[in-house]
Records
---
Amino acid sequence: MLYFSRWKTILIWLTVLIGVVYAAPNVLPRNVTDAMPDFWPKQSVTLGLDLQGGSYILLQIDRESLIQERQQAVQDEVRQLLRNERIGYSAISANERIVTVRLRDPAQAEAARTALQPLTQSISSGLLSGGTVSEVALAEPQSGVLTAALTDEGVQYRISTAVTQSIEVVRRRVDELGTTEPVIQRQGEDRIMVQVPGLGDPQRLKELLNQTAKLTFQLVDQSENAEQVARGGRVPPGSQLLYTTDTPPQPILVRNQVMVSGENLTDAQAGFDPQTNEPVVNIRFDLARGAAFRPGDPDECRQSLCHRPRRQGPFGTGDPHRNPRGPGADLRLLHRPERQ
């Protein structure tokens, strides 16, 4: 028969008692643990998805839609760049990641290549890697025909960026559920795994994550008076009539062409204007799209630039200025709180 000395027996029972005290919050109701003294252990063990159940969902980037959006953006830029240089073209089409332009005068091929060079500017592949990626490659398969093709590395960069940005969006949305320690991880190149322990309604999680939010920067069309158009006037071709969230709402004509989309953002920080002390959001774009916000006259561009969050959000005005710290571009968005 085993024999333990008195001090060993006391030590064993003391260890058991401490274990029971620390384990009690896991079996006691929450109102009981809240009524205990502050020195009493109240933290319980967080059970994972395998022990307490919950919701699991696997998200995947829509690769084809992303490629189509980038292809449409490149097509719009090609059309705009050629118009700016007064280079005529008879046809422009997009198919299988390639935008094809047929020039009216083949002798202008070299001038057209020069005009389209901004499309080939490298975009930053990340602050840590410090590398750059060429998203578009120009070619002249035959006389008078130019092509702008999306590169594989450019598409992969856009997918990787979309996954990284989506993880942060998913994390903020899941936090709204008030759950404890959700697991949000990247899987492979284009997937995101989401585990929410304790959430017994997977449909609620699915509906929350399926909400689409997209930020675009578009120019304001000043060729017509927005108030006259709102009273029944004709909307200019290539534009649409929208309203701000002011009280009362103010009409505004916005061009359909997207100058820069949210995927071109590399950094966004809240701050205050050093001169007026008003709250602002300082946004930095990548190398290629940053050139769109380097105007010769900032005052003119401030009047004709707006950002549009596509989730019933407000319009905002932008103050673009040159970035002294790098080849990208900074955009300062001014936020004016509503006055009661």
---
Amino acid sequence: MKQTISLILVLMTALALSACGRKSSGNSTNTVNRTYKLADASSSGSGSQAVPSESDKDTPTRTAPLLYYPDSTGQYIVNRELPSLSLSDHTLDVKLVSALIEAGVLNQNVSLNSISFDVSEEDKEVILLDFNKNLQKQVSGCNQAKENLLIGSIVNTFLSAYDRELAHITVEGKKLTSKNEFSYADPVPWYDACGLEPFTETAKINGTKLKLSLTRMYSDAGFLINWDTEQFSYRYDAATHTASFHAPDTRHQGEAPASLSISPSTLTEAATLAQVRQSLGSRKVEESSVTVGTNQVSAACLTVSDDKGGTAYYIFSEDGRVWLAELAWNSGEEDTRLARMDYMLSTFQAIS
């Protein structure tokens, strides 16, 4: 009798989960099969939320997904937040497809058949996306550049939303094919926003002549910049929408490596400036007006320094947004790493 009751409970649970998986967004009739495998216990995609550690409690957490799409020039993959959507929404997958359609990335007749999650042989978390045959038709009509932007926009949108490392795209359960010699037989990683080749340049910054190894890159924070790949590593914090470039080490123990961080501000330019002033408290601050970026936009600069080093804050507006850039350096780096960061900031260009 107990076995019979247990079997009935299992069947009822399976039916309930199946019904839940057939839900779709209010403005879509698409039926999506949602399966969570192996990695679902720690997955935001499964609707479960991990308990934050003590060190994470003060870190801002993004609650809305990001949409990735080609910029207005058709050269880069850019992003914007979708504030009307929630990362905890069970039907987020369908709504992301709708957002990609509304942004002109996907054709109107493209739909998602199923979404599932797995772990690769290399222990990397994978999101599996199966679309209808219309995605294959759209891909087949793309040249190499357009296909790269199309697939990159899909991959980055879903990897960002579901916090996965790889995406495997199929069509009606079969391999997505490409006439442009791209391969989708295996899961693909995050797509870089732009694929420009590295180059070298000699620049004179504040009287210092530098030979730089550079890459013109697009940051997910929403700007282009010449990245000094020889001296700095790149990081992007999606929660705070902050891009940062970090020197690998310091000359003295206990020092923080030199860094350049750039982020859009949610405040007005005046309010951002007031906030920076307040954060500096009673410290001696040098204020000046300067120009930054390739477009030479006006910026307010606040600098604090002592015998250990210094920090400079730049507040300016470009592309309809307010930006805050912070340069931090240690004593003795004024003609080296600070000069290199000054150069990188001089190549800043906001883009959307």
---
Amino acid sequence: MAARDLRGGIAGAPANGRGSGRGNGSAATGRDAGRAGGAAKLRAGAELLAAPLPALLAEAEHLAQTVLLGAHGRRRSGQGDEFWQYRPAMAGDAARSIDWRRSARSDAHFIREKEWQAAQSVVLWVDEGASMRFASGGHGSKEARANLLAMALSVLLMRGGERVALARLGTPPQSGALQLLRIARGLSREAARPDYGAPQAGAMQPHSRAVFFSDFLGDIEPVVAQLTEAADRGVKGALVQVLDVAEESFPYDGRTVFESMQGSLRHETLKAGDLRGRYQVRLAERKDRLMALARATGWQYLCHHSDGGAQAALLWLYAALERRR
């Protein structure tokens, strides 16, 4: 929810303007000119649509690179087709597991281990609610940070050979550069937004993994319902609550107007400071509810501030998904 301190003016209000102008010159006519105009319009539209994608991908790739975790870091023994390593046979190993050809070259018996390759898929839900656009203090919005974390996590997971899907696209988990581009495009799309979003568990495959990115400040019941449905399918994962620092500290005093990002909710007070204690109690209660919900369903919970370092959050996420295998 955005706040306006009336003594200091309206901070961050968007300025929209329209301009018009007249130029000299004759208008292009004819079929060729029409085609050229259509091509130029199509190109301009495509460039506008694609503009956010390289920046998001580049930032996500850079963040993922700093973590220095990829396919090699996730290798382990298990069921699969690719050879991983030989290890000395131990008591309890079945005789059929011994690689007799390798063992014949030494005085010991060796087991041929294959790389763990069980099919893994991860579904990412990133809240599209208008509340995620809130930002204070000149740093990025909650939405921008959630998008960056989701994109960087996708890069890391795909480097590890796993498949990823973005819930809002409604497509199955896939891997590869094209899937990364689809996810980036999905994260950058513009759509009609409610004040607060609700998770989508319908596309999650049984026994897969998922991550929910949201401020979780809206109605908690849809979150409970979707997380319960996901848990019933054996889906494990993480809740990442992304908050702005102002939503934690409540730095408002005096006459202040609080309104939702869509303007559907509005509250004016002459003594905003008097609300601080009650607000922080309710915020703490919401965090406790999310943590309890995560524990009950076997998920992990993280509260992340949009002005904090993204690398630590990404490391936590990667480790959390590793524990959920």
